[in-house]
Amino acid sequence: MRLRARVAAAAVLATLAGCALPHDTPRLTQQLDAPFVPTEDAAVAVMLREARVGPGDVVYDLGSGDGRIVIAAAKDFGARGVGIELDPALIRQSQDAAVRAGVTDRTTFVWKDIFEADLSPATVVTVYLFPEVNERLLPKFRRELRPGTRVVSHQYAIGDWKPARSLLIQGPSRSHTLLFWTVPERWN
């Protein structure tokens, strides 16, 4: 589908989903080409537990899809969560799920390009994006994430940044590779 058609389709979806389109419509990036593939709940729980998420954390999920990571961070770990998503229909779905889970006071879902979002408030960042997108995120992480911020990637590396550790877990339908980093005091 051509880029113009994608923009038009996103606008139609936003209108149908009841989402108001912001005046600063996000610049379209490769995130549009990343399909929504939900992270299984078993993997979400391990990602957040192993990242040591707690009530003092602000968890940013880049490409947040249906909001399950943000909602789990708030509901199960007491954290605040922010989902950044380019698909307005998924934003609406996330907001509805947050209402059902009773966590609207601790969750926010933003319709924005992940490359335009300010990540500096995050203490934990989660991603499940293609390797090329993760690689493009690395300079942004270096600029915006504070030392000590934990980063978790489902399935894919983040450029040449060597993970501190990785886990292979078995979910109900498939296995998942989880990669973990902590932003250092000084980047090499």
Describe the fold and architecture.
The protein is of the alpha/beta class and 188 residues long. The chain has one domain: Rossmann fold (3-Layer(aba) Sandwich). It has 5 helices and 7 strands, in the order H-H-E-H-E-H-E-E-H-E-E-E. The protein has helices spanning 3-17, 41-50, 68-77, 88-101, 131-144, and strands at residues 58-62, 80-85, 107-111, 124-127, 150-154, 165-170, 175-182. It has a 7-stranded mixed beta sheet, covered by helices on one side. Helix 2 crosses helix 3. The radius of gyration is 16 Å and the shape is globular.
Short account of what is shown:
Helices cover 34% and strands 21% of the residues. It has 188 residues and is α/β, with parallel strands linked by helices. It is globular and about 45 Å long.
DSSP strand count: 7
CATH homologous superfamily identity: Vaccinia Virus protein VP39
How much β-strand is present in the residues? 15-25%
Q: How is the main sheet built?
A: 7 strands, mixed
pLDDT averaged over residues = 86
Structural class by secondary-structure content: alpha/beta
CATH top level?
Alpha Beta
Topology (elements, then pairings):
Blueprint: H1 3-17, H2 41-50, E1 58-62, H3 68-77, E2 80-85, H4 88-101, E3 107-111, E4 124-127, H5 131-144, E5 150-154, E6 165-170, E7 175-182
Parallel strand pairs: 1-2, 1-4, 2-3, 4-5
Antiparallel strand pairs: 5-7, 6-7
Helix pairs in contact: 1-4, 2-3
Short descriptors:
single chain; 188 residues; alpha/beta; Rossmann fold; globular; disordered N terminus
